[in-house]
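Entry:
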Amino acid sequence: MQSLKTFSLWLIVALTLSSAAGCSSWVYRINIPQGNFLEQSDVEKLRVNMTRDQVIYVLGRPIATDAFDNNTWRYVYSFNKGRENEQHKELVINFENEKLVSLSGDYDQPENFNTPLEQ
């Protein structure tokens, strides 16, 4: 009977410690970059009136697509989510009639953005 009580006590202690370990903030979490990592130099290559294929050639395909708005593409990147040094960047690209018309987000608009490539 005494060994059953000892076993039960150890079992309760082990379960309590394992559940507490899962809830603690000192558990190591791997930093995994998620999304489209873009550099400002990539964004500098964008020009008004570029086709979708040209934008894909420059930036790649966006990770996040909007099922209800095919004319808006979002390039989203996050790293160290939930930490002090969290990084989050977003670039939103808008198309009209299959041509690039505007961009917004956390990147600077290129100086030559309003100059089409054909000129």
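The CA atoms of residues 7 and 13 lie 10 Å apart.
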